[in-house]
Amino acid sequence: MAMDSFQTIFEASALPHQTAQAHETLKKMDSNPPFMSTYKQLLKTQPSCSHDLASVEECELPLIDLSLLYTENASRCKREIAAASQNWGFFQVVNHGISSELLHRIRSEQVKLFRQPFENKCKDFSADAYRWGTPTATSLHQLSWSEAYHIPLCQSTDPSKHNTIISILTIEELAVSLSSLAHLLGGVLAEELGGDGAYFERNCNRETCYLRLNRYPPCPVPGGLFGLVPHTDSDFLTILCQDEVGGLQLMKDGRWITVKPNPSALVVNIGDLFQAWSNGMYKSVEHRVISNESQERFSVAYFMCPSYDSMIESEAEKGIYRRFSFREYRQQVQEDVKMVGYKVGLSRFLVGGA
Q1: Is 212 assigned a catalytic role?
Q2: Could you tell me the keywords of this UniProt record (predicted)?
């Protein structure tokens, strides 16, 4: 990327016609994290991710009507959920029992939260709750152009853990609804394997699961950057409520495809733990979010996680993965990110592997 392209961006953000005091006032009011100044050196010295963000095919994920679970077509519906988890690792659900009114409410709360001045967000929330960018990034390929607010469900009703701008009642209502849906889907997938569907009720509860509110600000970098770097999820199951802007992409048959947003559907994807628990039957698929030059994107993700001491083990006669705890898995991921700069994942836990 030409140096003068980045120089133009930096100069445009310098507000040369305003006094220093006015500039400082605007900075304090700005809700966007200081991506350009924080990652200025990376942006100047490294090429953008444009070669990784080439135009890809847009597709619609398998769409599953969950109302069929309560009809004579229940068995077919369960098979469709399992097939999508095997072949795609992703699917969409409609008639999921979560009202559009609740989803509109949480979006409104989310917008209000992220519209606060950046200084307020840093001051009012702990580093564990409010996160932005990628502090450890040494290249643009490791940088996520996004900000997020993490809400452990064990804290969702504690007023001391939230800024007063967030409606605790709305967060709690959404958490309860998504938790119920996640347990329903987990039970179906376990049943289709012939496994223990009650495992998730015992091990994945409000003490271990969490919500993440995401915002992807417009990205002015020529060629674009990742809104969220390519990754797999380190949980059992993720449920995503996304807006109409789009940007989610997943790896399918060795190539990236763009997920067409469906306003009436929720997106569900398999995480690493379910891939191991199912002995590789259900696929934890690499996915990413692409930044948008002019539009911001919002999403809410629910992560179904077990307790740290829960053991992940397939009931198959010949397991692909060795038995491990969630704690051990998380520690290995953190060590890999620190040592090699990225998550290695399940390959660390293959039988006979490293």
Answers
A1: no
A2: Oxidoreductase
CATH class of the 46-319 domain in this structure = mainly beta
In single-letter form, the type of residue at position 92 comes to Q
> Could you write out the three-class secondary structure of the chain?
CCHHHHHHHHHHCCCCCCCHHHHHHHHHHCCCCCHHHHCHHHHHHCCCCHHHCCCCCEECCCEEEHHHHHCCCHHHHHHHHHHHHHHCCEEEEECCCCCHHHHHHHHHHHHHHHCCCHHHHHHHCCCCCEEECCCCCCCHHHCCCCEEEEEEHHHCCCHHHCCCCCCHHHHHHHHHHHHHHHHHHHHHHHHHHCCCCCHHHHHCCCCCCEEEEEEECCCCCCCCCEEEEEECCCCCEEEEEECCCCCEEEEECCEEEEECCCCCCEEEEECHHHHHHCCCCCCCCCEEEECCCCCCEEEEEEEECCCCCCEECCCCCCCCECCEEHHHHHHHHHHHHHHHCCCCHHHHHECCCC
The structure tokens listed for 263 are: 């306003």
Q: In sequence order, what are the beta bridge partners of 149?
A: 130, 213
Contacts of 338 (CB under 8 A, 6+ apart): 136
* Distance of alpha carbon 218 from alpha carbon 207, whole angstroms: 34
Contact 324, 295 (CB under 8 A): no
- CB within 8 Å of 316: residues ≥ 6 apart: 279
Instruction: Identify the active-site residue in 297, 322, 323, 348.
Output: 297
Residue of 353, 350, 285, 283 lying closest to 323 (CA atoms): 350
pLDDT tens column, 237-276:
999 999 999 999 999 999 999 999 998 999 999 999 999 9
> The tokens 């979560």 sit on which residue?
98
